[in-house]
Amino acid sequence: MTSPSHTDATEIPDRLRGPLARMLASWEFLLLIVAILIFFFNTQASPYFLDAWNLSDATFNFTEKAMIAFAMALVIISGEIDLSVASIIALVSTSMGFAVQFGVDTPLLIVIAIAVGAACGAFNGFLVAMMGLPSIVVTIGTLSLFRGIAYIVLGDQAYSGYPASFAFFGQGYVWWVITFEMVLFMAIAILFYTLLHRTSFGRSVKAIGNNPTAALFAGIRVSRVKFILFVLTGIMSAIAAICLTSRLGSTRPSIAVGWELEIVTMVVLGGVNILGGAGTILGVFIAAIVMGLVTFGLGLLNVPGIVMSIFTGLLLITVIALPIVIRRTHRRAS
Amino acid sequence: MPTIANSTQSPVLSMEGIVKDFPGVRALSNVSLELFAGEVTALVGENGAGKSTVVKVLTGIYQPDQGCINIDGQATKLATPNEAARAGITAIHQETVLFDDLTVAENIFIGHAPRTRLGLVDWTKMNDDASKLLEKIGASVNPTSLLRDLGIANKHLVAIARALSIDARIVIMDEPTAALSHKEIEELYVLVEQLKADGKAILFISHKFDEIFRIADRYTVFRDGELIGNGHIKDTDSAQLVKMMVGRNVEGVFPPRTNELGDVVLQVEHYSHPTEFDDITFSLNRGEILGMYGLVGAGRSECMHALFGITRPSAGTMTLNGQRVVPKSPADAIAHGIVYVPEDRGKQGAITALSIVENIALPSLQTTSHKGFVRMAREFALAREYTQRLELKAAALDQPVGELSGGNQQKVVIAKWLATQPAVIILDEPTKGIDIGSKAAVHTFMRELASQGLAVIMVSSEIPEVIGMSDRIIVMREGRQVAEVSREDVTPEVLVRAAAGIETSSAA
After folding, report:
1. What is the per-residue pLDDT for B7?
2. Residues 18 through 37 of chain B touching chain A, CB cutoff 8 Å
3. Using the beta-carbon criterion (under 8 Å), do B349 and A214 form an inter-chain contact?
4. Facing residues of A199 across strands?
5. pLDDT value, residue B507
6. Which of A189, B315, B341, B353 is 20 to 30 A away from residue B21, measured at CA?
7. What's the pLDDT tens digit per position in B2-15?
């Protein structure tokens, strides 16, 4: 060090790179560029894209999934996974539909939904955090279990007849083209950003995902943190179920089938390490918008749903492979 | 130290002018190394001297950028691990690379299992051959038992059997005694003698001087990727080797005693565990360094785990500053002012992917955060304070801990515990596997902590460290406390005898 100042030679700077350099080198920045490119491509591909009401409708493509994705991001960062989220939606929606048959009104429906979601999450959390079972097995089990209950209750029937006031959650507008779901999505994003990046709970989640033993030795209550994460995911699934049921106006047992994979894709696309330990809420936020834009763009071009599913699959593999390939070529070059 | 010309015997293997570059670092700079049949050559040097790189070049994992390797005087290229094996080179690693869920015989013959005429594995022959090999090295291990079920010493024997199964003539042993107990080490020495008698050329890498002088015939010293000297072990002594390793004289290896004993801070009575330890009773004073000596598996770490709340004792009490405490979890123990620096830095101590500042702040989150929200400014202040006290070397405080050297990682781990301002700090093998420079820094720092009134428990298997640092030493054997020795009365013999269970004439 040739610094002329008389600071102690052993002093270590706080940060290696400035905030701008860190931002430019980040995955989130790359994703943002992708989002802008897709947005631009969409404007060229279809004249209907830049319509405010069309764009507003398009947000339903991702808002409900993204609410769960934020909670899922924390679960994955902690080194676990929850594949039962879509089935929790089915069970929550069925519970609400069941209650409606007895004339239950909106406020109590919300309470029931959150309670069922939290209970499902607590069940997962108990098996994973307290019993020490692997989350991938536990949640594949509850994926079948929760939806199975919905099928037993409903059979091939559907619940409808939700109260008029219930429609606001999935169909209401706060102002002009801004939907209630959009506002809720933003609020939840900010909440989870704060939770992961600004609280000691969030720091514990990162530490656990990187090294559960060292985290335990550092005085972190590992099981408790994991249990809370699963309950949180259950609650977020319940909130998504409220929005989705309200938007559709009815409940079928096949509601939200296959969402868990789209949600995991969203999280991984957002730069969360599938092996745990690293990830940001901003990344998941941008990834949700990217996936929404792609779905909407393909829809405008009349691309059939199965092609979208192929696209999602390819995207997931690419996103997981890309950092590994980059690292390998980087190592070879050096 | 001049290179000796060997007129009587030509080397089995010789490396000449080997250069290996990594981005920004020259790991090996024009080094030479010779190995002779029936002789043990000790390779010594501080961490980062290039010992591991040489092993990787010899086993075909790295390709040298310059220089040549001759085997029996013939230039040989070792392009892959397979070619190295075919050339008769085998390595037994520090942390033995074997497969827990395969049988002993499978482990020995994996990659070159005997085949039947149909190309299937010939199990009968494989198990028979394995039995013969194991018998030859004096291992009482069943070839069909799972490796998982063996102790660490037997695993080493399996690794050695594997080395012999490919008919190796050149055997590399990379810190083979690091995880072994005293008795197991003795058995390993016998085996090394046997390998020598069979005419194998052995490269023995070790940090422990007593074993170098015990079994090596020759030595080669590396420093910063360069060959510093070599010769016959009988022509040198440890002072000279240390001087070559560090490039300077190391005076007074351990820092002088400056700490004074205060009041009793911790009192442990009749601490017991169903399987690991039994009836442990001791007290600890402020400003004291209490050494915990014993063989690997004597129950020292397990006892410390119970004090730290990782496991629960089945009986016994613990009194901290006059108050009864039973830590239910590490979080609980930390809140009471007891901290534990674990033995396994990589698995239990540092979170390598997180930054220095995040690691240091982790156990202190309760105090650095405000109503659950983290405060980066306070975390950086904490990290700055403790990294300066420990003279950490790093590029920046937001650098991932995994990028630091072993010694500096250990400093981060110690820093994170000190930042909680504990009353009692338990250090489990605090200098295991770190270089001499960092070791001295850790020792000096321990002394300083004790002088400031901290009570220190140091679990260590290194006799010089235990004797050099402790005010009082407790020896454990098979889960029991077998001796307590003051620093005035301690000798290496006392410790070894107590730990090994050899009765002394005075029946103490």
Report:
1. 45
2. 23
3. yes
4. B373
5. 39
6. B353
7. 444 444 678 999 99
Structural domain boundaries in chain A: 49-323
> What residue type is B106 in one-letter code?
E
Q: How far apart are CA B508 and CA A120, in angstroms?
A: 63
Structure-block tokens of residue B48: 């980062």
Which domains, and CATH codes, for chain B? 13-246 (3.40.50.300), 252-337+426-508 (3.40.50.300), 349-421 (no CATH)
Measured between alpha carbons, how far is B448 from A108 in angstroms, rounded to an integer?
Answer: 63
User: Longest Cα pair distance anywhere in chain A, in angstroms?
Assistant: 79
B351 to chain A: nearest residue by CA? A211
Say how far residue A138 (Cα) sits from the centre of its chain: 19
- On whether any CB of chain A is under 8 Å from the CB of B399, the answer is yes
Burial (0-12, 13-18, 19+ Cβ within 10 Å), A53: exposed
Size of interface A-B (CB pairs under 8 A): 107
Say if CB B353 and CB B403 are below 8 A apart: no
User: What's the rounded mean pLDDT across residues B401-410?
Assistant: 82
User: 3-class DSSP state for residue B63?
Assistant: coil
Angle in degrees, 0-180, between the axes of helices A180-198 and A200-210, rounded to the nearest 10 = 70
What DSSP line would sit under B96-117, residue for residue? ----TTSBHHHHHHTTS--B-T
> Over 80: is that where the pLDDT of B165 sits?
yes
- Give the residue from chain B lying closest to A12, CA to CA: B396
Write the pLDDT tens digit of every residue in B332-341.
999 999 999 8
pTM over 0.90: no
Q: Are A150 and A156 in contact (CB under 8 A)?
A: no
Distance (Å) of CA B426 to CA B16, B27, B162, B257, B339: 46, 36, 38, 19, 6
- Cα of B320 to nearest chain A Cα, Å: 18
Question: Is residue B96 very low, low, confident or very high in pLDDT (cuts 50, 70, 90)?
Answer: low
Contact B374 A199 (CB under 8 A): yes
A206 interfaces chain B, CB cutoff of 8 Å? yes
ipTM: 0.81
CB A89 within 8 A of CB A248: no
Residues in chain A within 8 Å Cβ distance of B416 = 218
The CATH fold of domain A49-323: ABC transporter involved in vitamin B12 uptake, BtuC (1.10.3470)
Residue A124 to residue B383: CA distance in whole angstroms: 37
B376 against A23, higher pLDDT: B376
Compute the 3-state secondary structure of chain A and give helix, strand, coil in percent, each to the nearest 5.
70, 0, 25
Amino acid at A118: A
List, in order, residues 6 or more apart from A100 with CB less than 8 Å away.
A109, A159, A161, A162, A163
Residue A260, token pair as written in the block: 């868990």
List, in order, residues 6 or more apart from A20 with CB less than 8 Å away.
none
pLDDT in tens, A261-280: 899 999 999 999 988 988 99
Q: Does A214 touch chain B (CB under 8 A)?
A: yes
Mean pLDDT over residues B418-439, rounded?
84
| Distance between CA atoms of residues B11 and B35, nearest Å | 5
